């Protein structure tokens, strides 16, 4: 066995030992990425535009959850039903504020441009401007230090998979992430609203001729994407705390996930998010944590080289 | 009409000024009757601009030491403070130094506060044989520039990393350390200094770079990386982790370490020494037990704290470098006490010989003006509060 074989063998033992722990953490991150990624994909579907201010929707959801938990969680850490109730409330608060911010964003930063048939580049600048405005406002109002969110649950190991602990925090993300993504998938696939979203995504002009209210559909798309992004912000903040710049990197990763899965493709965004989270997490078995981003974007480039439209392909209208 | 009114106002104002001046003259002649000579101790540092608070922290401590010395009644002279505001700026510093040199009664300087400002001012002080005792200038090269009038009561930047390594490996007896740096110049420098000494002390060192995150404005990495990074720390089997970086990212790391079941020691430097570390750690209990080191002391002396609060109207607890400024001033006063004839050059010579027990540490200078002995303080987070344990 050569030096390289030895290297592989020694790393394989590490891989076995840590694999499950990293997988659990990766899936949790993946769900968060997925929840943010669907926001990008939905908006791209109906407007053909990357909403670069989505990171600030995520951030506002985080802060909404933070203030709610600060108000509701006392000195003793809740457990059992009250934990579930508090987390539910936090998700609702994060989602509501996320939806509100997304709506405001659509009204102020996008609709005026759409009414004037502005070029796509103008949307991009408008989005970046809105993003800077929002995170700097948050920094001014809420302070520039990262603060931890009072935890509404005890973060103990609930059970073990092959010796690796699965923490309460991971389970909260799995459960709420699964419910929300499944609900979204069903809404888009079966409801009247979903049908109009897909119709606008496929051909906005024809859709409007068929009686679809485009303004309303676009606004609702922002609401749905914003709600998921805001809820994800709350869940993310639970684990790592909140700060005005918290949206930047997670949102960039989620955007990557959306492109990875096929921008505009709802299930693609979910799969892309999960895949990115898992691959990132497992990559540290082979490389240092400093190279996580290199691995993530390396995979993105590799996938796009062979499948330029992403794993599941583009088009919200057809695939979802 | 308008003119006449102005004249009246001017006349009234000038007579008021005259009235005010009379008691002042009276007072001056009274203090002159005491027949004690008056000497001035200068303070040079930032008293305006972005770093003003740091200067204020220091100047009140200098004033307090002077007030207490005057009130003791044991001095054969009286002391006064004069302040020279350099804003911490190396381009303003030389002008202020020249003004200080021109003050005939000025015998020594506490400061300059900042390293850059010190380097720019020192040629003027050196030429005038004025001793400068800095509470806070930590650039290593300041002590090796040939200025025999340069002293500092704080350890320089090269001391912390090695002192931290000796503390973990020799004092605590920990033989395997995972050394993390956050990829910043400060974090990487501190971590590599730590790693070098820890290896020399016989410990197994596993170095790693875990870059700062956008959550903390120290980089662009994702805050979710710490789950994976913490797993690596646990997998390495190291009994201690040293973190070269800042409090915000360390807080995220600590949360992940607790989740990953890490039970070893965690140590970090002055970049992490902030109450914001505990605020930013999820859960806050994960910060308990963490060791934080700094060349700066926090004042644990209740008498000093009370007197300082009375003078400054803000707490000494968060007044960084106030204890060091107090010690620096007292070093100068002690040197003056030993002199029969007080001259600028005499104080420089006396400071080289001086040993006295300051509030933060024994003040004794090495030949190059650096403080002798260990001068790194170790603090620990206990029940969500940072507590100073003492010198390393």
The gist of it:
The complex is a heterodimer of chains A (320) and B (392). Chain A contains twelve helices and two strands.
Structure description:
- The complex is a heterodimer of chains A (320) and B (392).
- Chain A has 320 residues and is mainly alpha-helical.
- Chain A has a single domain (20-144, 163-319), classed as ABC transporter involved in vitamin B12 uptake, BtuC (Orthogonal Bundle), CATH 1.10.3470.
- Chain A is built from 12 helices and 2 strands.
- Chain A has helices at 3-47, 54-72, 80-115, 120-142, 168-190, 192-202, 204-209, 214-240, 248-261, 266-283, 292-306, 316-319, and strands spanning 157-161, 164-167.
- Chain A has a two-stranded antiparallel sheet with strand order 1-2.
- In chain A, a hairpin with a 2-residue loop joins β1 (157-161) and β2.
- In chain A, α2 (54-72) packs across α8 (214-240) and α6 crosses α8 (214-240).
- The longest helix of chain A has 45 residues, at 3-47.
- Chain A is globular.
- Chain B has 392 residues and is of the alpha/beta class.
- Chain B has 2 domains: 38-155 and 299-364, Rossmann fold; 160-294, Rossmann fold, CATH 3.40.50.
- Chain B is built from 12 helices and 14 strands.
- In chain B, the strands form 3 sheets. Chain B has a 7-stranded mixed beta sheet, covered by helices on one side.
- The interface between A and B is large, with 41 and 37 residues.
